[in-house]
Design brief:
about 375 residues, alpha+beta, 8 helices, 5 strands, DegS
Length: about 375
């Protein structure tokens, strides 16, 4: 009886110790979550302040450039006047010679100061943009950590009394949950980055450009204002293109209704319309047929990413997409005449190619990238079709 009593007492002590450890763990994790959240909030507030400062800097740059152009024009006229006075020195009075020299010198000094100011403003702008990029990464990392800690807290708080049973499958469930959360967070981060770098930035430029149009109309007249308006329309059209591209990125509805080939035709036609002169052509080889949805989505995303890289980053004039439908596989070739790159060079932040490699592995396909700087890029994709 005594030995049994000690055994039970020992189990009781072990449970209490385990509960105490878990309690302290939850408290520590929860405190860490609050601290990380606070860091993220502080960084976000500083980010908003820097965004406002960056907007002001950009306005100042535009104003300095406008002033510099005027000074440049006046300085050229003053130098021309000074050259004329120097060449016909005897035909002008001493006062006229002195005035011509002082005017040219004064304008040259003002132009020099203006250029120095523009240089300093541009350096400040570049510094702010770098800091903002670092802050975005810090905010994203903090949000990701808070999300992961929330998952951990959920497991720890779920049922302490049944912690033994929970420990058996916690690792598997947590890994699965983390993978889903990480995929969601990566997609949200990518979409946020694209909206920030694309439509959001363009709309900010549109607002600045609208103010410039008013100034041009007042200072230079109707014709110059019309020219600015035409440029303004191009900028708005480009912003609309980015919005439509992002909509396509989220999920083209035609993919579910019509299939891969018709969706690619429509997608390439839409991209060509808003790609500022890039010509996109599509050719299908073999009999058109519907594929398993997972293959259609993956192939569309792979081709879409390759086309976007060619149009947005490679500065291509022409992009050709060929798709061969076979009974056992699908082959796709995306070729552009852009600036090319070195496939062996690893660039920081090159998420597009990394995402393509991960997606091709998920469907057991193969991808080959051939490119050289200045020689364009050719991407070959092969995906085996399993029934």
């Amino acid at each position: 009886m005594r030995e049994r009593s000690l055994h039970v007492s020992g189990n009781s002590i072990d449970t209490q110790v385990l509960d105490s450890i878990l309690g302290k763990m939850i408290e520590t994790v929860d405190q860490s979550k609050s601290e990380i959240f606070e860091i993220g909030e502080q960084t976000r507030n500083e980010y908003d302040q820097l965004v406002s400062e960056l907007s002001l800097i950009r306005e100042k740059i535009a104003s300095v450039i406008y002033t510099g152009d005027d000074l440049e024009r006046r300085s050229r006229f003053a130098r021309k006047r000074l050259a004329e006075v120097s060449h016909h020195f005897k035909d002008f009075s001493e006062e006229q010679v002195r005035q011509a020299y002082e005017t040219a010198h004064d304008l040259q000094m003002k132009l020099s100061v203006n250029r120095q100011e523009e240089k300093q403003l541009r350096e400040r702008r570049d510094d702010l943009e770098r800091r903002l990029q670092n802050m975005v990464e810090t905010i994203d990392r903090a949000e990701n950590l808070v999300t992961q800690i929330s998952v951990v807290l959920t497991y720890l708080n779920s049922d302490l009394k049944k912690v033994g049973a929970a420990l058996e499958d916690a690792a598997q469930k947590q890994m699965f949950g983390m993978q889903i959360i990480e995929a969601q967070e990566e997609e949200r981060k990518r979409l946020s980055r694209e909206i920030h770098d694309g439509p959001a930035q363009m709309m900010a430029n549109v607002l600045m450009r609208s103010d410039l149009i008013e100034r041009v109309f007042r200072d230079k007249g109707t014709e110059e204002a019309i020219t600015e308006i035409k440029s303004y329309k191009k900028m708005v059209r480009s912003a609309l293109s980015e919005v439509r591209r992002i909509i396509y990125d989220l999920r083209p509805m035609a993919l579910d209704d019509l299939g891969l080939v018709p969706t690619l035709r429509k997608y390439l036609s839409t991209i060509e319309e808003y790609s500022n002169g890039t010509k996109l052509s599509f050719k299908q080889i073999g009999e058109e047929s519907r594929l398993d949805p997972k293959f259609e989505v993956s192939l569309f995303r792979l081709i879409q990413e390759a086309v976007q890289n060619a149009v947005k980053h490679a500065q291509a004039n022409e992009v050709t997409v060929k798709v061969e439908m076979r009974s056992d596989c699908v082959n796709a070739i995306i070729r552009d005449d852009g600036i090319g790159f070195d496939p062996l060079e690893k660039k920081q932040g090159s998420y597009g190619m990394m995402g393509m490699k991960e997606r091709i592995e998920l469907i057991s396909g193969k991808m080959d990238v051939q490119s050289k700087p200045g020689r364009g890029t050719t991407i070959s994709i092969n995906v085996p079709i399993t029934s």
